[in-house]
Every structure is written in structure tokens, then in C-alpha cells.
Amino acid sequence: MAMAKQAVNSSDALTIGAHVRKLRKRQKMTLERLSELTGISVSSLSRIENTQLGMSLEKVELLARAFGASPEELVSRSLGDGVEPVATLPVAPQLIVDRARKRRERQDREISTKYLFEDSPRRALECMSCTIQAISIWDSEFLRHPGEKIIYVMAGDAIVYCQGKPPTILETSDALYMDAYVWHSFVAVNSRPVELLVTYFHGPESRQGLLETRSFTPESWAALQAD
């Protein structure tokens, strides 16, 4: 019997998103492969699994087909499979003060980082202040990871290389939003270091440490951009 043509309600979408992640890992399928099978972008799939994006009936049908199931099976098994919720609310609201004098500074190549709220494990956001030196972008370390990211420039100017986009200059007080699972790197534009405030969603996959790093050359970056 065909499913009624209506959107999946928000509470069910949370459970289905967790079940999609469970099925994908059970079938040893990458997000990139699932994207190829469904036509849903990698960033949207990541947001579905991390309960950041609602589920339309069309997406349910595409995902079910990719897993070799019917839409009814995907929904019914999700709601009755005992999938653990992606996030649970704490018993009482949290109010946490992060003291500047207690932050630990980490130096990694051209980046000096201080993590905010590092000792608060229940938070859903990762936040850090970064000071980045002026080096060649090709000497920097490129990253990609689960979770959308917002960068705010506190001081200085930065150049941003982001997969699928041309290089972008950010000036003091500029802000940038970046989708999940895209290769990116920042360096200071001139001899003055740039200071950034970086925040990104700390979803279930982020907690598993699925942070990737690599270096690019002008040629390998151009090849990635051409894909």
C-alpha cells in the first residue's frame, strides 16, 4: 500500500534520521555513495542523520530505495526499532561560564586554538577561538568534518578556500557559514595574524571523531573543484 502523500512529522523525522545512519553504517555505505544512489547532497544527508533537516516523503522514498526497502518499512522500522535518540535534553537547563583564564591553548602548525566550554561534555556545539598565521594556503592543513560551521572574524583579514567555491576574502567583523563535509582551509591575508571565532554543530558523527585532514597542491585543488 502506498504511503499517504504528506510530509513526515518532525518527531518521526528525528527517529528516521537516526535509523538512516544506522542502516547506512550497517551496509558499510559512505555518505558519498548514498548521495550517488539518492541524488540527495552529502551535506543534506549529514543534516538528516544529525536531525538538522526535515524529511519529506520524497526523501523517504529515495532513501528506502537505496537501502532496498519500501518507504513503509523504513518508517515503521525506524519508529519501532528502538533507535536511541540523537540527543536528549538535560534534566535541568544548563548555564555554564567559561573563564578565559582557565582556557588551554593548543598550537598546531599555523593555528593556535583555545576551545571554549571544553569541559562541558553535554553541549551540542563546538566553539573555539583561533589565531592563524600568514602562510601559503598550500602549506596549510585542509579539513572536513560533520556539522555545519560558522566563522566570525574578530580581527585581521583571512582568505578562505572552500570546496566548490572560489577563494573568499573575509575582513574584520565579517562572518561566513559553511556546510558540512566540505574541504576548507583559512590563512591570514597579510603579515598580521587573523583571529577567528569558530562554532560548529557537534552532532553524533562529530563525537565519533570523524575529522579528516589533508594537504592540497594547486593542481589537486583544481582537480577537486572540477569534479
From TrEMBL:
Signal peptide: none
Positions in coiled-coil regions: none
GO cellular component assignments: cytosol
Any Pfam family hit: HTH_31
Record bears the keyword Chloroplast: no
Xref: InterPro entries: Cro/C1-type_HTH, Cupin_2, Lambda_DNA-bd_dom_sf, RmlC-like_jellyroll, RmlC_Cupin_sf, TransReg_Diox_bact_type
UniProt cross-references to CDD domains, sorted A to Z: HTH_XRE
Record GO terms (molecular function): DNA binding; DNA-binding transcription factor activity
SMART domains: HTH_XRE
Keywords, in A-Z order: DNA-binding
Domain spans labelled HTH cro/C1-type: 20-74
Keyword Thylakoid found: no
Listed name of the protein: Transcriptional regulator, HTH_3 family
Gene source species: hydrothermal vent metagenome
